[in-house]
Amino acid sequence: MKSKNVLQGAGLGLRREFLDECLNQPPNVDFFEVAPENWMTLGGHLKKQFRALTERHTFALHGLSLSIGSSDPLDVDFVKGIKRFMALHNIDIYSEHLSYCSHNGHMYDLMPLPFTEEAVMHVANRVKQVQDIIERPLILENVSFYSMMPSQMTEAEFTLAVLQESGARLLLDVNNVYVNSINHHYDPYQFIDAMPRAAIQLMHVAGHYDEAEDLKVDTHGSAVIDPVWQLLKHAYLKHGLKPTLLERDFNIPPMHELQHEINMIKHLQQQPSLAKPA
């Protein structure tokens, strides 16, 4: 078994559509990321293909259904399954969304939390449960949202409070910051600046859909736009180089087009002013 993984550089979210291509002619990436829910129960040929990739490449997990903010009981058996899956494939990184997706059953959508002290403590207690099981920090992603719940604090203040209270790490999704800044009228650069450098484990970039001039929808279905690239560059300047992943889940183009965006991440990471990693 290879040594424990350390994420660095530029990564790509792995989808089954390009599983064969990644095995035969892998793109120039430093790591892959998968949603464990889509791979944990695979058997037969797909399971063998996935195992072949995890034996050759560094992987991270980015979950979809933990529902860390839910009022439902934490699914302990699911979390134990995540731990076994990580051990099987020698994966060290497990991230999830700072949101909830279940209430008396799964809703199959990421719902925003109220930015309140009560929600901070609720989420932090559940994060600690997960961390006790997986025996490593849980990494939480700032999410895009389209309606504001009753709140006592800003999104940035809430995120900071959860990280501080729980000991979780941060997956800083730069596109989500941009989308929310348009939809909820705040300065994305100030949000980036407010995040704790030491807590940031990795970053995401993706494309989104322009529903209207003042409404952006996080779809992962188009190319990353220039304002998001500029925001990513600012995040590097502020917080240092962090492993950064390109997400593309819909309208998936040929691999060479994805490689162009991956190369853009690498280009930003190789700028002289960013030469020393965090």
Plain-language structure description:
The two termini are 28 Å apart. With 278 residues, the chain is α/β, with parallel strands linked by helices. Helix 4 crosses helix 5 and helix 7 packs parallel to helix 8. Helix 2 links the parallel strand 2 and strand 3. The strands form three sheets. It has an eight-stranded parallel beta barrel with strand order 1-2-3-4-7-8-9-12. Strands 5-6 form a two-stranded antiparallel sheet. The radius of gyration is 18 Å and the shape is globular. It has a single domain, classed as TIM Barrel (Alpha-Beta Barrel), CATH 3.20.20.
SSE blueprint and pairings:
Blueprint: E1 10-13, H1 19-24, E2 31-34, H2 44-56, E3 59-62, H3 76-89, E4 94-97, E5 100-102, E6 106-111, H4 117-134, E7 139-141, H5 155-166, E8 169-173, H6 174-184, H7 188-194, E9 200-205, E10 209-212, E11 215-217, H8 226-239, E12 244-246, H9 255-269
Parallel strand pairs: 1-2, 1-12, 2-3, 3-4, 4-7, 7-8, 8-9, 9-12
Antiparallel strand pairs: 5-6, 10-11
Give structural attributes:
alpha/beta; two-stranded antiparallel sheet; TIM Barrel; 278 residues
